Amino acid sequence: MKNIVVLVSGGGTNLQALIDAEKSGIIKNGKITCVISSNPDAYALERAKNNNIPTRIIPRKNYSDSVSYSHAVLDALNAEKADLIVLAGFMIILDECITKAYDYKIINVHPALIPSFCGEGYYGLKVHEKALEYGVKVSGATVHFVNEKADAGAIILQKAVEVKSGDTPEVLQKRIMEQAEWKILPQAVSLFCQDKIDIIDGKAYVRD
Ligand code: GAR
Q1: Which atom of ligand 1 is nearest to the CA of 8?
Q2: Is the pTM value of this prediction over 0.85?
């Protein structure tokens, strides 16, 4: 059974999807053992507490730079004996001290079809604002491994979602969460926990 540590910053609907998937048996061979928040007021913390999952709060504002912050998170991940780290609406780019220590053990959900609308500055609602500004007819979500570059690690799963005329960023965000993120994130976690993801030449391949 793998220890899954989930990093959050906000509402935590993706965390909720993971909790529900663990309860219903969609996640095989993995258990959420800790939730770490960069934001003391994140509603995600309530979701963890309601499900008796231990929490840690490591506020970003207590650290002067990304490197010292990442070292504090790294200490917590080591103490929790994390086998898999899931960034579920975690709004901070982690320093390579973490991505190197947990190579191919950190996954992130991004609310667009990478390589579109991703990288530094593309997070949360901004991603959907940019997609609507561009006028794309299809967007979606991506689950990928995390490396030292923002949103640039090997892609594990993607799911496309239709953009409809009249969509606002909020409406599109909700559709992408419901139809894509809340499905492919638990699927990817389960695949990882069952050792069903192979890495060949820097690309991820899912085994049946
Ligand atoms: C989700 O849409 C997630 O994909 C996105 O923020 C939202 C968090 O919602 N993450 C990023 O943009 C990271 N680059 P949640 O807190 O309800 O899961």
Answers
A1: 16
A2: yes
Contact 155, 146 (CB under 8 A): no
Judge whether 107 and 100 are in contact, CB under 8 Å: no
Supply 186's token pair: 């638990």
pLDDT tens digit string along 120-155?
A: 999 999 999 999 999 999 999 999 999 999 999 999
Contact indicator for 158, 141 with CB cutoff of 8 Å:
yes
Contact status, residue 154 vs residue 115, Cβ threshold 8 Å: no
Q: What is the DSSP string of 44-111?
A: HHHHHHHTT--EEE--GGGSSSHHHHHHHHHHHHHHTT-SEEEESS--SPPPHHHHHHTTT-EEEEES
Q: Comparing C-alpha atoms, which of 101, 92, 102, 40 is closest to residue 69?
A: 92
Q: What is the pLDDT of residue 208?
A: 80
Q: What is the CA(40)–ligand 1 centre distance, in A?
A: 17
Both tokens assigned to 106? 């950190």
* Separation CA 55–CA 7 (nearest Å): 10
Q: 138 has which bridge partners? A: 162
Tokens of 112: 């667009």
Is the separation of the CB atoms in 36 and 6 below 8 Å? yes
Distance 109 CA to ligand 1 centre (A): 7
| Three-state DSSP class for residue 143 | strand
Q: Are 58 and 37 in contact (CB under 8 A)?
A: yes
